């Protein structure tokens, strides 16, 4: 008789989710689904709010990556004001985003995933967590905590607080970087560099223990999407979009993020609040793509900074060009921490940061605007419409975790089919299924919103997978 295995809740991720594994009569895995059961609704209740409030409101989407929303929202506001913000404001926003990448990636690697990687997928679940890591590897855990603290200090130095700073606004930023703050960040950089390189060495040392996991944790061909600079270098704040395949071939390049609706679509499934964006030219679900650290490394030509560039070369040598396994998100995350630290060091020497020209003033000059940047987990879009008084009439948010939704579902099914036999799943197997999701570092609080007014495809399936009804809204 067919039966289900339910993993509820999925642990050590941001937000609440569950996984359903459907078995056939012989006990083999027929399907597996990742469900996000929480609902937030920011896209709806923001309607009617003034444009100038949006960075502060949408930053509250998340306590882990509020800076990503703060910046994408401010950029949507810049577009509606139709202003080019002062160079110092751009560089300060970039600096804060780099601090955000460091703190978020450190949280993901050291706090969420290191217990699996260093204590073992089959380790005692009672101690396979941050506290168990602190007990077993106190110096490594301490380094991770301090690295995250460094990223938060960059944010606090600029915005006055570690979480939800009301600092970036449409037109620029509210304040600059004081000399003592710059010196404090510079003083902590050597330790941060050392920790990043310790973590990279450690990951490479233990990687050979996880060849089986790397082969089934989302190792399949998809597209990858991320921002690149005009030269094709790794980019995190303001670039064009590049889409490449698993063979490294570039399918689309220099795409304007503000025109995302021309090449991305969003589908919804009845068993999850998490939307499923896809690359429109390849349809649904053939247009599956991944975003985030692994995607950004796969689409860029170079990192643009020397230490991270050397790591990227080694990464590509080890994995023959493009990394296709989602297990490699961990590796990519550490390389990005190194890149972020190098760029922070460079930016702190930029004399523009001392400018007092930080904000462009303007009224409502356009009724629509899109802001996009690279959040730690991938490309983030804020798309607003306003009336002539600047009151919000429409919001659509496309979040990184949602863009990885199709890949996460396929990853769960791949791991389940690899490990589960005769309907039996040990705790270690179930932990591997969760770890497959953790590799993407999903942020579910960010990702569950109203459907907005994007073109949608709603698919209703019978229990045996037969398509009963399909509803499209173009």
UniProtKB/TrEMBL annotation:
The UniProt entry, under Pfam families, shows:
NiFeSe_Hases
**Single GO molecular-function term?**
hydrogen dehydrogenase activity
Q: Does the keyword Ligase apply?
A: no
**Source organism per UniProt:** Aquisphaera giovannonii
Source taxonomy lineage? Bacteria, Pseudomonadati, Planctomycetota, Planctomycetia, Isosphaerales
Family label:
Belongs to the [NiFe]/[NiFeSe] hydrogenase large subunit family.
* Record-listed Mg(2+) binding positions: 43, 62, 397, 449
User: What does the record give as cofactor?
Assistant: Fe cation; Ni(2+)
Q: Which PROSITE patterns does its entry note?
A: NI_HGENASE_L_2
Q: What is this protein called?
A: NAD-reducing hydrogenase HoxS subunit beta
Residues bound to Ni(2+) are 65, 443
